[in-house]
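Quick one, tokens below:
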């Protein structure tokens, strides 16, 4: 049974965020071998890519170094192409090969289109077609001898696109997919300087490191190993003077649907000598017998980490519990170095033993908080089930909510797999906090320290946001978190009316209620897909919220309907909707698919064990997503923990889970999945799946033989999601009726190139796939099939 559960947990890992966002490819250096029979990809390798950008008051100076390697036994007659970005004019373009400047020229769109077409026709490879509609920098031909490297360096200047107080920098990494092997070491560094104060810094594509040097300078960086990037690096930063800055990014797919917005709000960078606002922190620590050994030692160290990061004027206390509850002091203590030393001696004397009285421990902590005049935080840590006092899950959660009349935020840390994960989610979710789960082999101190480091200095507490005169709905997170020094609010939702509005943010600064107002504009329909990631990010958070509601309140047909619809539309494969990737499952058989999901959702009845904890950890990742995932090839840490497990559900002939126990259903589902490929890869942004883009070029039968995961039967291209069904990629928005009336187009035919010229440039990425594709463009469906192979010479 444990092996089956581990396999299922690997499937649950599919929904943990993948730190990637697939957006339309724009530009990146490409090598074309001018020998007529050599394909675009496969003739070279990229050993290293270094991207250094310096942005000063909206003007970006970029230097890119790429090391190309010729792995073949013949000389590569290389021509370097650089498809230009859509936005902004590139100036001062210079290209050097091994330190020697190489002649080249910038070509306008019309001439560039002719060259793109020529290469696509002669190479019989449609991949380059996606750049039609853009300009081009083209060099003369230079040789790369067999086995040799050539270092190509580009330098150029570009004005970054600005929309009100939001500036975007993008560097298109996605064409690195033309390389024959993963890039060994891609590095991106961007330094931003601005005369106006920099507030929010946000990357929708990567989990980049952000180092603030003050209000006017920021350094952003990331480095990966052995990857094939499938997305561009994108970075947004906002400008605003004053104590707080807020901006909105928005996208509306069409007039008949709501639009989607993403609010970014950040405080000014405080000077080192600025006095922080005081807060209240109470650490509630499980000292039951199960905490013996390394766990109690790590918990003590975690508690000391919190103590050492408190500030003067902060109030604090420590509650330890087994079947009895003990406190450091009878009341809250004002922090000082002397009090810290005394508290550390108390921590050193914590000894494990006894059972677990969660109910009394939480009530004791919450009753210490005298009022709501200052922000209050409960850090609650447990490694087990409630076994003393009140043990009922619903009763404990209700008692906690009732005792929390002063609106403290409760943050839960579940250690190991013996916790009641659903109870922890009830406690945190019902008290404006979050849950975090620490695996048995993880360090408790690291988890608690990393979490607490983000909340040392509150700037704005109990925040409330509204958009003046605009109806907004389904905003996430439901409870907007407090804003801390060095942090930012990332809040997504939907809106009805487009146009100009103002953002009003109210909250407590110290004990005082204050409000801030900022101008904004919400996009109308047909404004392009530049911010389409906002819709996808909203969908991820909505899916997490739906699973949370079903988990905490039980199944509801309406919620399940929406969960299946969102999963299908956006390719967000949760453990409960992974069957959508099965080639035999029709996307538009709504009732059958909802029935399948309802069966899968019954596994949420399990509340303890690695299976149960894995589900809640994955759910929390969705709810707290900072960026949208791509339809993925990667697994998460959960799948690695599950020892490479993970299989899609198969509901086939004679297979049913109806009427079985929860444990039996889990086993039946896993058995039904036997023989399916797992969800493979690794977590951590574009580093996660070294072979993803290479795999995407193979037919699914070839990919399966190569060990590719079932998750790769879902692909996100631009703003659309595609599923592999009936030996072709099917646009998720295409109904069976529309599919039957589609127009057939053969790649490389005159009709094909005419279609590419007549559509928006951003649509060409749908026409440039190596496999059959069914896609809807401006309401019309096309069946795009690869050109017949030429007979062998």
């Amino acid at each position: 049974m444990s092996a089956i559960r581990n396999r299922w947990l690997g499937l649950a890992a599919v929904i943990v965020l993948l730190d990637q966002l697939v957006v339309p490819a724009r530009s990146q250096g490409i090598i074309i071998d001018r020998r007529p029979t050599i394909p675009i990809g496969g003739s070279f390798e990229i050993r290293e890519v270094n991207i250094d950008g310096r942005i000063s008051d909206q003007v970006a100076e970029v230097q890119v170094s790429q090391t190309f390697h010729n792995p073949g036994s013949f000389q590569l007659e290389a021509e370097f192409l650089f498809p230009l970005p859509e936005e902004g004019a590139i100036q001062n373009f210079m290209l050097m090969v091994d330190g020697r400047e190489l002649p080249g020229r910038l070509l306008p769109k019309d001439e560039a289109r002719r060259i793109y077409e020529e290469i696509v026709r002669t190479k019989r490879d449609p991949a380059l077609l996606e750049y039609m509609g853009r300009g081009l920098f083209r060099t003369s031909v230079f040789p790369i001898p067999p086995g040799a490297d050539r270092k190509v360096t580009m330098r150029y200047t570009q004005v970054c696109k600005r929309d009100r107080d939001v500036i975007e920098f993008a560097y298109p990494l996605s064409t690195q997919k033309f390389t024959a092997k993963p890039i060994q070491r891609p590095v991106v560094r961007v330094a931003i300087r601005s005369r106006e104060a920099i507030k929010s810094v946000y990357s929708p594509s990567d989990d980049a490191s952000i180092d603030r040097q003050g209000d006017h300078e920021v350094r952003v960086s990331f480095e990966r190993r052995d990857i094939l990037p499938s997305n561009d690096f994108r970075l947004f930063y906002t400008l605003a003077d004053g104590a707080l800055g807020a901006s909105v990014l928005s996208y509306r797919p069409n007039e008949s649907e709501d639009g989607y917005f993403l609010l970014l709000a950040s405080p000014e960078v405080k000077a080192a000598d600025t006095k922080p606002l005081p807060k209240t922190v109470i650490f509630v620590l499980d000292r039951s017998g199960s905490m013996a050994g390394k766990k109690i030692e790590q918990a003590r160290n975690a508690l000391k980490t919190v103590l050492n990061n408190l500030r003067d004027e902060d109030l604090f206390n420590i509650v330890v519990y087994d079947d009895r509850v003990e406190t450091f002091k009878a009341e809250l203590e004002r922090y000082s170095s002397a009090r810290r030393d005394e508290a550390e001696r108390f921590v050193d004397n914590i000894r494990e033993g006894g059972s677990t009285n969660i109910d009394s421990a939480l009530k004791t902590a919450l009753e210490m908080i005298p009022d709501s005049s200052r922000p209050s935080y409960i850090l609650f840590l447990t490694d087990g089930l409630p076994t003393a006092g009140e043990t009922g899950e619903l009763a404990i959660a209700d008692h906690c909510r009732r005792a929390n009349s002063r609106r403290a935020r409760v943050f839960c840390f579940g250690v190991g797999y013996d916790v009641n994960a659903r109870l922890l989610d009830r406690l945190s979710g019902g008290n404006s906090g979050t849950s975090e789960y620490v695996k048995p082999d993880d360090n408790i101190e690291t988890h608690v320290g990393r979490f607490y480091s983000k909340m040392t200095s509150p700037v704005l507490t109990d925040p409330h946001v509204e958009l003046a005169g605009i109806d907004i709905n389904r905003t996430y997170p439901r409870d907007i978190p407090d804003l801390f020094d060095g942090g930012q609010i990332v809040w997504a939702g939907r809106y009805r009316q487009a146009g100009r509005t103002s953002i009003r943010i109210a909250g407590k600064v110290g004990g005082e209620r204050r409000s801030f107002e900022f101008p904004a504009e919400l996009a109308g329909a047909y404004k392009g897909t530049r911010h389409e990631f906002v819709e996808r990010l909203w969908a991820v958070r909505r899916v997490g919220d739906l699973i949370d509601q079903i988990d905490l309140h039980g199944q509801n047909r309406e919620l399940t309907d929406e969960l299946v619809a969102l999963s299908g539309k956006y390719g967000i494969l949760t453990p409960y909707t992974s069957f959508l990737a099965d080639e035999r499952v029709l996307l538009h058989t709504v009732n059958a698919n909802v029935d399948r999901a309802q069966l899968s959702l019954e596994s949420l009845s399990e509340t303890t064990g690695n299976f149960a904890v894995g589900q809640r950890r994955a759910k929390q990742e969705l709810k707290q997503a900072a960026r949208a995932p791509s339809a993925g090839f990667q697994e998460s840490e959960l799948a690695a923990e599950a020892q490479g497990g993970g299989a899609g559900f198969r509901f086939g002939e004679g297979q049913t889970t109806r009427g079985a126990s929860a444990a039996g259903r889990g086993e039946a589902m896993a058995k039904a999945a036997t023989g399916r490929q797992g969800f493979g890869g690794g977590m951590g942004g574009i580093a996660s799946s070294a072979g993803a883009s290479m795999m995407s070029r193979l037919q699914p039968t070839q990919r399966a033989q190569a060990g590719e995961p079932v998750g790769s039967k879902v692909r996100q291209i631009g703003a659309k999601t595609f599923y592999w069904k009936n030996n072709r990629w099917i646009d998720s928005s295409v109904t069976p009726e529309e599919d039957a009336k589609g127009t057939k187009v053969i790649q490389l035919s005159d009709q094909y190139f005419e279609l590419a010229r007549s559509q928006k440039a951003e649509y060409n990425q749908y026409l440039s796939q190596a496999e059959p594709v069914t896609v809807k463009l401006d309401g019309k469906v096309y069946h795009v099939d690869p050109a017949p192979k030429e007979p062998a010479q």
